[in-house]
Design goal:
Blueprint lengths: L5 E3 L2 E3 L3 E3 L8 H9 L4 E3 L3 E2 H14 L7 H29 L4 E6 L6 H10 L4 E5 L11 H18 L4 E5 L6 H10 L4 E4 L5 E5 L4 E5 L5 H14 L6 E4 L6 H10 L3 E4 L1 H6 L2 H16 L34
The protein binds flavin mononucleotide (FMN).
Length: 325
């Protein structure tokens, strides 16, 4: 009988399936459901640095009629920030108390904020690891690619200095040289990379002639880029790679492991099918392993990584010439 045990960030997981960060992982009730269905670890809903700062500012603005002293403003701003952070810290503490699986805290940060302080507080509350969700939309033409890369590196270095727990960076696919950046991140001492985040996208609502923000449904097109990059990088870096985006069923999890991923995160699949999808996937992964004669995940992890391939160029092909229909 196969077993699904694996290691991620040096943490012992009973399954390679993680719950990705979203509002679904923001309540203890849901975290328990995920655990009951056999998830390997949970990534808590992100603490959004930007949201905290905005909420604190609007608290000060709405009280400006009766706040005459800057000391009072500072106090209210600080108290409002603490309200959000304390709520999140309670979630980390409660999750650690009630669950037996690893609990990964998550911060959506921006460069100049006070997130380093939050990160240290999560660590003090017992989080098993920290996932940083960071994204720069390179829309400012006065900023060069090198400057963008440097901003990422500064953020990761600051995070690495701040916490001792395993550190994971969740990134998007848009870098001028993704492979160079993955090696650069590894050199800062990050323990894991989540490839890739899937961001909300703007669209146009034709009926009301306005811009709307959309969460685009997932499909094959979404997981293929993740699969390619896991296969290209897994044998090249010691950093643990966790697959994310478009992990819609057990076959995609298996493909990611064959390409070299340590684990895979689900979000949309749980939104669409409920928490039961985790146990279904675990069972199907087990069945596939049994039918292929594998008793453990390590026996087939990375079997199809680029470095092990007879035709490594298959993972790099991007143009249509000679592609089978
Ligand atoms: C409704 C929703 C909320 C999300 N919230 C967060 C979040 O708070 N922090 C984060 O790092 N990612 C967040 N994500 C991104 C997911 O964790 C995941 O990276 C992305 O949805 C791709 O995975 P999927 O194809 O399994 O959905 C969210 C995704 C969705 C759909």
């Amino acid at each position: 009988m196969s077993n699904l045990n694996t290691k991620y960030l040096n943490l012992d997981l009973r399954s390679p399936i993680l719950m990705g960060s979203s509002p679904l992982t923001g309540t203890l009730e849901n975290l328990r459901k995920a655990e009951d269905n056999g998830v390997g670890a949970v990534v808590l809903r992100s603490l959004f640095e930007e949201l905290i700062v905005n909420e604190a500012r609007s608290a000060v603005e709405s009280a400006s009629d009766y706040l005459n002293f800057s000391d009072a403003e500072n106090f209210l701003e600080g108290a409002s920030k603490n309200f959000f952070i304390d709520k999140y810290l309670r979630l980390v503490q409660d999750a650690k108390k009630s669950l037996d699986i690893p609990v990964i805290a998550s911060i959506c940060c921006n460069t100049h904020g006070t997130w380093v302080d939050y990160a240290q507080r999560f660590e003090a509350c017992g989080a098993d690891a920290l996932e940083l969700n960071y994204f720069i939309l390179a829309s400012d033409s006065s900023v060069t690619g090198q400057q963008v890369d440097k901003t990422y590196m500064n953020l990761v270095k600051a995070a690495r200095k701040a916490v001792g727990i395993p550190l994971v960076l969740k990134i998007g696919v848009q870098f001028s040289s993704l492979s160079h950046m993955i090696h650069a991140f590894a050199s800062t001492g990050v323990d894991g990379l989540v490839l890739f985040n899937h961001f909300v996208r703007p669209d146009i609502d034709l009926e009301n002639v306005q811009v709307e923000t959309r969460i685009v449904p997932r499909g094959m097109a979404d997981y293929s880029e993740t699969l390619r990059w896991i296969a290209l990088m897994s044998a090249e870096t010691d950093v643990d790679l966790c697959a994310s985006t478009g992990i819609s069923d057990s076959s995609v999890v298996l493909k990611m492991i064959l390409a070299g991923a340590r684990c895979a995160q689900l979000t949309s699949a749980v939104y669409q099918h409920g928490f039961g999808v985790i146990s279904t996937m675990n069972n199907e992964i087990s069945q596939w392993m049994d039918s292929h004669g594998y008793t453990g995940i390590d026996q087939f992890r990375g079997l199809l990584a680029q470095e092990r391939m007879k035709h490594p160029e298959n993972w790099e092909r991007a143009q249509y010439m000679k592609i089978k229909s």
